[in-house]
Structures are given as C-alpha cells and as structure tokens.
Amino acid sequence: MQGHGIFARKAPFDGTTECDLNTLGLKCRLKPAYRPVSKPPLQARAPRAIGMPMTHPTRPRRNFYGRLKGKSLKKSQKEYIEEDLGPLSPGPVSWEENPARDPLDLDALFGGRPTWLEIGFGGGEHLVHQAAANPGVGIIGCEPYVNGVAMLLGKIRSAGVDNLAIYPGDVRDMFDVLPEASIERAFLLYPDPWPKTRHHRRRFVTAEHLEPLARVLKPGAIFRVATDIEDYVRQTLEQVPRHGFEWLAERPDDWRNPWDDWLSTRYEQKALREGRVPHYLTFRKT
Q1: Active-site entry in 102, 105, 170, 192
Q2: Which domain holds residue 94?
C-alpha cells in the first residue's frame, strides 16, 4: 500500500471540527423565576383510559443539504413523474404519509424476493442495470433530486424492468420505516463529496446515516461504496467499520478495480475525464 496517497497516515477524522449550541440542538435561555403551581389532588385527576392510542413518534429535526431540483423538466419527464412515480411507490414513507412510522411490508412489495437499496441513484443507470441483471431481487432506490428521478423513470420505461420501487426523498425517512435486518445489499455510489472540512459532517458516512443503515441491513449484507474523492475514502474507511461493518479488501486491486457487475455511471465518467481516480470499497455487515 505504500506509495498510494489515500492510505498514507493522516490525522484521524474527528467529526466535531465545527460544533456550536445550535448544531447540537441546544438552546440557552434564562429560567423564569420559580412559581409554585397547584395540582389537583390525585383522586381528582382524570385517569388514562385503557386502550387509549399512543401518540405518534416525534418527528426528528433533520437538515437537508443538496439540490432538490435543477433545470426545468421536459414535457416527457413531467409525464413520467405524473404517470409512473405513484405506481412505483414502496408504500408510505414520508412523515406526512406515515406519521406513526409503521414499517413497510417488503414481502408484499416484492413478493418475498430479497431486497436491495440504492442510496442516491443519480440518473438511475446503475439502478436499472442491477434490476435488469437481477430479476429475482427487488430494489428500492432513494433520490431527492427530482431531475434524477425523472431520468430514472425514462430508463425504467425503456428497460421494462418491474422489480424496482422509488422513493423521491431523503433516505433517512426510508430508514425509519424499513424493518430491522431486511436489506441484503446497499449501494452508495459517488455521493456528494462535501469537500470543505466544515461540511464533512454532511457526508453520508457519519453516524447519523450509518447507524440506521446498520440497523436495516441483514447480518452478512454487502455495502458497496464508490467515490473518486480521496478524503471521502479516508472518512469512509474510518467511520464505516465503527458501525458494525468489516472492509473486505485483501489486496490493492480490491479497491482499484470495479466490481464484476459494475456499470460505469455518468458521474464516474466525469471523474475520469477530470483525472480523478475511482475507488471501490466493499463492506460486510457483521
């Protein structure tokens, strides 16, 4: 490994380079003067009725960073979204649709087939490729960028695959409603690199994302990460094993060469044109 800069010794990643009270969700305020409040006697309080429904889970405060929409959609792309997106829904995922956070019924969704997950599918070429190559698997794709969703829907029409479900939103909402240990394979391909140091906490490879990912993956499940950003590789190799994964590389070719079933995406082609080197990291859920 000596001579490959990404694996040179560097200062360990510390995800707390920027921290303030607002980031931590804390509020500083003066406490009001104490005033005793009289309570009714115990016997006068209304008892809670047996079988009274529990309140819904509290919606967490989640910041979203990144684009939701780019250029204006073409007429055909608008038609794809209006006609095709609804039938490809995996079920109620958003907090508006599913405030109780009831888990999805994956057996009903894919007829008992194993379920895979792609996190941020971009233009959808890899997702459709995997669906066509693995008809015995159901794949859920999550992508909040509407232009990417529209591109994927056009590719689905052309390919004629029927083993996909699409959630056009934040994958953290999907993690809420996926059953525990339900996913057999997950893909994170060329995620937003957030290159500035103060933005590293926005990357996917942080505890906020890796902990729920580990919860929904089955023991032995495979997690693939592809990136052309060396510092993203560093953070991935430091953070992912801390959350219940083992890196499966045994020799340099294991991260230098793509997977046997790999389809190079447009993001990868752009990286190669600009002289950046892709890295292919494979992890297994322990």
Answers
A1: 192
A2: 5-28+40-285
Closest by Cα among 195, 205, 199, 250 to 225? 205
Nearest CA among 165, 177, 171 for reference residue 102: 177
Question: Within a domain: residue 51?
Answer: yes
Q: Is residue 159 part of a domain?
A: yes
Is 192 an active-site residue? yes
Residue 34 domain-assigned (yes or no): no
Contact 212, 243 (CB under 8 A): no
pLDDT digits over 228-283, tens only?
999 999 999 999 999 999 999 999 999 999 999 999 998 899 999 999 999 999 99
Distance separating alpha carbons of residues 24 and 201, to the nearest angstrom: 12
Evaluate whether 254 touches 246 at the Cβ level (below 8 Å): no
All residues at 6 or more sequence positions from 173 whose CB lies less than 8 Å from its CB, including other chains:
93, 94, 95, 167
